[in-house]
Amino acid sequence: MNPIGAGTLGRRIKIQRPSTVKDSLGAPSRTWIDVATVWADIQPLSGREAAIASRISAELTHQITVRYQSIFDNPQQVAQYRVLYRSRIFNIHSALNEDEKRVLVVLLASEGLDDG
């Protein structure tokens, strides 16, 4: 991947993980906890990328590029996270450590109103 220039990561996003808490009746209820607030680039997948992604998952719609953080080290955990950008929700399917250099991470995600 090419180096990231100033302003490329221009969208402020929240990365969230699911958590289970008890409601007022003691029943388990799912909620979301902020893990990190970072700068990102959000791009819809191109037609070709979407066609390739559909072989993996018919849902993949966006790639979100962020600077590396240790929260992306566990792939099973990351697949449970989501990204919140303004009122939009992106469910993360995978995190790719670009060039394995721990500089940039590309999150493959699907947009939707899924609460987990």
Key traits:
globular; Thrombin, subunit H; 116 residues; 49% strand; six-stranded antiparallel beta barrel; 12% helix; mainly beta
Describe this entry's structure for a reader.
By secondary structure, the chain is mostly beta strands. It has a single domain, classed as Thrombin, subunit H (Beta Barrel), CATH 2.40.10. It has 2 helices and 6 strands; from the N terminus they run ββαβαβββ. The chain has a 6-stranded antiparallel barrel with strand order 1-2-3-6-5-4. Strand 4 (82-85) and strand 5 form a beta hairpin. The protein is globular, with a radius of gyration of 15 Å.
Short structural summary:
The protein has one domain: Bacteriophage SPP1 head-tail adaptor protein (Thrombin, subunit H, Beta Barrel), CATH 2.40.10. It has helices spanning 47-56, 75-78; strands at residues 11-22, 28-44, 62-67, 82-85, 88-97, 104-111.
- CATH H-level homologous superfamily name: Bacteriophage SPP1 head-tail adaptor protein
Structural class: mainly beta
- The helical percent reads 10-25%
Q: Which architecture would the CATH scheme give at its second level? A: Beta Barrel
User: Measured on Cα atoms, how large is the radius of gyration?
Assistant: 15 Å
Average pLDDT figure: 85
